[in-house]
Amino acid sequence: MSRKKTFIAALLILCFSVSSLSALDFTYDANLSKASDITLGLTLITPGILGLIAPPSDYIAIATSYAGTIAGAYGVRTFLKQVVHKPRPYVQDGMPLPDGVDPDENYESFPSG
């Protein structure tokens, strides 16, 4: 591992050990929500763009790289939801449970999908 990567990893470990993940608690912001939707859309169309500009010999490499990234991100997200156990906003505010919401997911707010 390079010095730069080692430094970044050590810095992240230090930051998370000094402050809890509750420091990442933000109020809802419509602009951030829209930015999240835009980046999600870009993430979904990236393989198509790469497919248009890459030679056919690279298709398998692109597909496996993209699939591995998606699987890794899903695994980390799922793990963090179980570890952080942050209540959803409607649970914190004492509001009634919205229709169609599974009560088992009331404490899986962070990180968002």
Helical coverage, percent range: 55-70%
User: What is the arithmetic mean of pLDDT?
Assistant: 74
Q: Quick one: how many beta strands?
A: 0
Q: How many discrete structural domains?
A: 1
Shape: extended
Q: What is the element string, with H for helices and E for strands?
A: HHHH
Q: Which stretches are low in confidence, meaning pLDDT under 50 for 5 or more residues running? A: none
Q: How many strands, which pairing sense, and closed or not: the largest β-sheet?
A: none
Helices and strands: which structural class? mainly alpha
Q: How much strand content do the residues show? A: under 5%
Structure annotation, total helices: 4
Radius of gyration based on Cα positions: 18 Å
Alpha-carbon distance between the termini? 30 Å
What does this structure look like?
- The mean pLDDT is 74.
- The protein is 62% helix and 0% strand.
- The chain has one domain (25-105).
- The protein is extended and about 55 Å long.
- 1% of the residues are buried.
- The chain has 4 helices and no strands.
- It has helices at 3-18, 30-53, 59-84, 89-92.
- It is mainly α.
- The longest helix is centred in the middle third of the chain and has 26 residues, at 59-84.
